[in-house]
Amino acid sequence: xxxxxxxxxxxxxxxxxxxxxxxxxxxxxxxxxxxxxxxxxxxxxxxxx
Length: 49
Description:
Blueprint: H1 22-30, H2 45-48
């Protein structure tokens, strides 16, 4: 079974992963990193729930 990890953090982009995010930096170098295209227009949390 292939495992998938989704890290959903508002405003996080791959150029912010580095020295100050050591776990994410190490994980992204050991595993494959993919981005998900956002669905626009975005909706607020109240609409999503």
